Amino acid sequence: MKKNDPYASLRYTEFNLFLIIRFALVFAWSMQFIIIEWEVYRLTKDPLSLGIIGLMEVIPAFSMALFAGHIVDQKEKRNLLIICTSAFLILSIGFWYLTAPSINQLLSSNSILLFIYSLVFLGGIVRAFISPTIFSLMALVVPKKLYPNAAAWSSSVWQLSAVLGPALGGFTILWMGTHGSMYIIIGFIICAILITLKISRKPIMNPKIGEPVIQSLKEGIKFVFGTKVIFGALTLDMIAVLFGGAIALLPIYAMDILHVGPEGFGIMRAAPAIGSFLTMFAVAYFPINKKAGFKLFVSIFCFGISIIVFGLSTVFWLSVLALFISGVTDGISMVIRQTILQLYTPDNMRGRVASVTNMFVGSSNELGAFESGFTAKIMGTVTAVVFGGTMTLITVTITAFTSPALRKLDFTAQLKKQK
After folding, report:
1. Does the structure show a pLDDT above 90 at 86?
2. Quick check: 375 and 252 in contact, CB under 8 A?
3. Could you give the count of Cα atoms lying within 13 Å of 5 in the half-sphere of its Cβ?
4. Residue 269 is part of which domain span?
């Protein structure tokens, strides 16, 4: 292998299969989420209803996270991913049914809304299991020394799917309606299941099979809270995402502020993901191992500024540019965070650590959506977005002064240990 080979991890067949699976699942999940957002706002015209979508998903995802991490560490990862993806397929079929024109004529808007929220709640349970499973599986298909490179490619694929899923979702809502769009989502999920079957079963790395649940959970929590680098990075990212959740309000901007309809909604929803994808693709060629902590602080600070600009903008393309920059800065943050987790987490604790991570960062996306919807209801949409961006800047500034260890973080020494 050549030094600094940007394609090093791609030379492993199962890692390529893993990337295809991750693309299909994130594409389907992100496309489905904006279809749900659009359908719910169409039914209610209430910004708080958008926040409730996030709340319905985060409650089970958060409450089940630790238990899910314990199960993931106890089970074989390939088959567990197949089970999780099959559950995702069942939920998507449910959304397909609820968006059918005949159902809209048969049931009241309130009844449909209740069923949608119920499926979103069940989806939160599935997500609690699927996130740590994917995180753990990635570590089993590439060597440890390639984790930073693999993290960059995995994050890039995540963002590419997050680009195409929302963008296509916005356009297919226009062309095919919400019901027709669900066929595409179901097709991608089925493909993910079939490709997962091509990955071989993996050994269970946890030597404590059958360990009591409480003891297992305590070890996972203790490790995360006791590892300052992991805990600091997750806390910082959680706060930034929590207060920077302007994405949840995009349907309002598209319909009522910028007046750009579903096409503009799709473009705005895709803009952050495009920025993140391009950034992480570049990171594969130009690693950010040196001064990673400093770069993490700068990226999240710039993320906060971009959110403020978006909130104040009344020009569509300026709004798109601000969202694109938010994606660029978030992409840098994501690669650094994923590299920290892969390098500093022992193999036997990946499921539990990923679950705690999901409680911090993953759940903060939905809590951020609820926070944005709630503050938009009481402050107004623009004020709520600007408030969120401002709180992000304040948080980053305080953390930078109070966490010198995170600020001075550098991956170079840790990578040498893996060689």
Report:
1. yes
2. no
3. 11
4. 9-201+210-418
